[in-house]
Amino acid sequence: MFCTRQAPGQDFSLEDQIAEQMAEITGDAQWATGRDGRKTLILEHKMAARRMGFEGVFAPLYAVAHLNTALMDGTLPILKVFFDGVAPIVAAARSDDFTLMEAVRLRSPLLDPKHLEAAGNNQFELLESVGVATHALCEMLKDNNPLIEEVAQILQSSGLLALPDRLVAAMAQGATADPVPETSDREALEIHAYRVVLGRRYSEMAAFAGYANGLSPYGTHQGVKGLEFPRVMVILNDEEAGGFLFSYEKLLGITPASATDMKNESEGKDTSLSRTRRLLYVTCSRAEESLAIVVYSSQPEAARDRVIDAGWLTAEEVVVL
Predict the structure, then answer these.
(1) Within a 10 A sphere around the Cβ of 185, how many other Cβ atoms?
(2) Beta carbons within 8 Å of 305's beta carbon, 6+ residues apart
(3) DSSP string of 99-112?
(4) What does the DSSP 8-state code read for residue 223?
(5) Counting beta carbons within 10 angstroms of the beta carbon of residue 134, is it exposed (0 to 12), middle (13 to 18) or buried (19 or more)?
(6) What span, in angstroms and rounded, lies between the C-alpha atoms of 198 and 141?
(7) How high is the pLDDT of residue 8?
(8) Residue 61 to residues 49, 58, 148, 167, 306, Cα–Cα distance (Å)
(9) d(Cα 17, Cα 3) in Å, to the nearest integer?
(10) How large is the angle between the packed helices 186-198 and 148-158, nearest 10 degrees?
């Protein structure tokens, strides 16, 4: 276990330094090969967003409460356009023309059999326009990092992929970096969030897609139950997570348990303490070969003393940074 004070800003290089220390401690060089050499478990998706560089896309959408569920499970329409539409087409472009056109055929409404039939004698021109739009999209994203708005404009002007109505409404108003408007209008809040996203770079959306599809070195504490990985780094940081259902600070004795926690515990009911204890067990038991627990705390020495006194770890297994 590595205990340190709250990380300033968004500098997560300490976690890479700890991985290098783990390579020395365990004799496993894979720890030092970068983030892909380990599975890092975080408590909230926004923690992965900060570390993987897609917070600029994630944060404005997460700020709109009624979008949260669809955002978390990847079914939000704007995400599906990029996750299930653009990303597979761009990936197919790295293969061959047949694979690329098959990817487009499966996703573009322009190649829907009914649309083709309606084109009648103009089917050749339609197919040609699809090819031009596909080429323009792939060229824009080849060795470039355009704004999401620029990518969306190609999709809209060509009709290559269907865009959700509220994204189209956002495009009509243009990208913005303005703060969230003071309104309770759900549609206005959603459109504003999309306008903010339009002003971000495509690389952020691509990173988000990789994370959502389980292709990243990050995962949530709750999302890895039943899975195992050779090397696991568990990040404990209540302040960054900002949740209320779990509290590692309470579990480590840094923050006192609330009166409600104590009452529920005495009555055999579930508490933030019991939930956190179970969650910690789940995360720590994901490691097949070696495990690093990184605790960000206002009182790292107290965290160290707690785990040693509780018999969870020996003094030699805890490092205060």
Answers:
(1) 10
(2) none
(3) HHHHHHHTT-GGGS
(4) G
(5) buried
(6) 15
(7) 52
(8) 12, 6, 14, 12, 38
(9) 13
(10) 110
Report the SS3 class of residue 295. strand
Residue 11 confidence (pLDDT) above 90: no
Coil, strand or helix at 250: helix
Tokens of 296: 């960000």
| Pairing verdict, β 229-236 and 39-42 | parallel
- Using a 10 angstrom Cβ sphere, with 0-12 exposed, 13-18 middle and 19 or more buried, the burial of residue 144 is exposed
pTM reported for the whole predicted model: 0.82
The count of residues in the chain is 321
pLDDT tens-digit readout, 165-188: 999 999 999 999 999 999 999 999
Q: What 3-state DSSP class applies to 147?
A: strand
Query: In this structure, which amino acid lies at residue 12?
Result: F
**Cα gap 7→53, rounded to integer Å:** 17
pLDDT tens sequence across 113-135:
999 999 999 999 999 999 999 99
